[in-house]
Design brief:
Helix content is 85%, strand content 0%. It has 258 residues and is mostly helical. The termini are close together.
């Protein structure tokens, strides 16, 4: 099993390296202008040279994203639990949530700026508003798929609805929950950076917007690389936690892989 896992990771790493090599060769062979598509080597050099300047902006974006993400998770779990156990809440809240999630968040940012001014608060709220919907849907789906027979047995044993929710419903939603976390963290970064490009003077989004106005395309791509790296790192963290918490749900796949 470990040999297969190591080979899979080696193949994955090799494909990533091959992607950047192909990108580099494409730019060199076509004579692509830096204003259109900089070479990866230029982007990495820019990232290395400007990292001391970028670091405060990276911290700002990461802190804003994580704050909005944590609030979005809390709100999403609470709403998902209510919608998942109540047919009335499902019929009432779900259409409203779908309508809100269908609104482009770039149209919501000016409203947040009008209410709270420019800066960190609109970025946090944008990250929250864009990341909580996948969590609501997955938590509600996980609760809705709990076997009725199991609930009937627990009720016959004297368990209350709260007992069933806490001891059976929520634990069984963990695979759905962690799947939604890995999607929601990407959405949170999108929301935070979107707000930073419009209503902030700090953060990676503001750096990218300023670099774009100055035609510093390598710096724009450096910002993209930073965001991609942060997203991948958090995805890996959630995947590791998921393996610990929901190993029972992925054991079958592990057996097949061996």
């Amino acid at each position: 099993m470990f040999g297969i896992d190591i080979r899979q990771k080696a193949w994955s790493a090799g494909l990533i390296v091959l992607f950047f090599v192909a990108w580099e060769l494409f730019c060199l062979m076509t004579g692509m202008s830096d204003l259109v598509l900089p070479r990866p080597s230029q982007v990495f050099v820019t990232l290395y040279q400007r990292f001391p300047v970028l670091w405060p902006h990276i911290v700002q974006t990461l802190a804003t994203t994580m704050f909005g993400f944590v609030l979005g998770v809390a709100l999403g779990v609470a709403l998902g639990a209510i919608i998942g156990v109540s047919k009335t809440a499902y019929d009432t809240c779900y259409p409203l949530l779908i309508g809100f999630s269908s609104i482009p968040k770039v149209a919501v940012v000016p409203i947040f700026v009008l209410w709270f001014g420019s800066g960190t608060v609109p970025a946090v709220l944008t990250a929250l508003s864009i990341c909580f919907f996948p969590i609501v849907v997955n938590i509600a789906t996980g609760l809705a798929t709990t076997e009725p027979e199991l609930e009937d047995v627990l009720k016959a044993l004297g368990a209350s609805k709260l007992d069933i929710l806490w001891n059976v419903g929520l634990p069984r939603t963990m695979p759905f929950f962690f799947a939604s976390l890995k999607v929601a963290i990407s959405y949170a970064f999108v929301g935070a950076v979107l707000s930073e490009t419009v209503a902030s003077n700090r953060g990676i989004g503001n750096v990218m917007m300023t670099a774009s106005s100055n035609f510093n395309v390598p710096l724009v791509f450096a910002g993209l690389f930073v965001l991609a790296g942060l997203g991948v790192a958090l995805y890996v963290v959630f995947s590791l936690i998921e393996g610990r918490v929901t190993g029972w749900a992925t054991r079958k796949n592990d057996v097949i892989a061996t």
